Amino acid sequence: MITVTIQLATLTCPSCSAKIETTVNRIPGVDKTEVLFTLSRVKVSYDQTKIDVEEIKKAIEALGFDVLAVKG
Fold first, then answer.
1. Residue 47: pLDDT over 90
2. DSSP state of 36
3. Using the 8-state DSSP alphabet, how is residue 71 labeled?
């Protein structure tokens, strides 16, 4: 498992956090997602043999959120 932190431009409400968490957790290969609302960060643990971080990033962007950086 690999854990990365994805920095978002901004999160405006707790329901946005829940939306991201639910969506990312449904991606095959993702083990755990934790959204840090006050910091606009998403921590994701995933199996790198099943998915890569670009797919996770694209899923978040498809929800309408801007990804600023990915740190792993």
1. yes
2. E
3. E
The residue ranges of DSSP E strands in the chain, in sequence order, are 2-8, 30-36, 41-46, 67-71
User: How many residues does this entry show for the chain?
Assistant: 72
- Is residue 13 scored above 90 in pLDDT? no
Picking from 39, 35, 31, the residue whose alpha carbon sits closest to that of residue 63 is 35
- Give the domains, in start order, of the chain with CATH numbers: 2-71 (3.30.70.100)
Contacts of residue 9, defined as CB under 8 A and 6 or more positions apart, other chains included, come to: 40, 65, 66, 67, 68
Q: How confident is the model at residue 29 (pLDDT cuts 50, 70, 90)?
A: very high
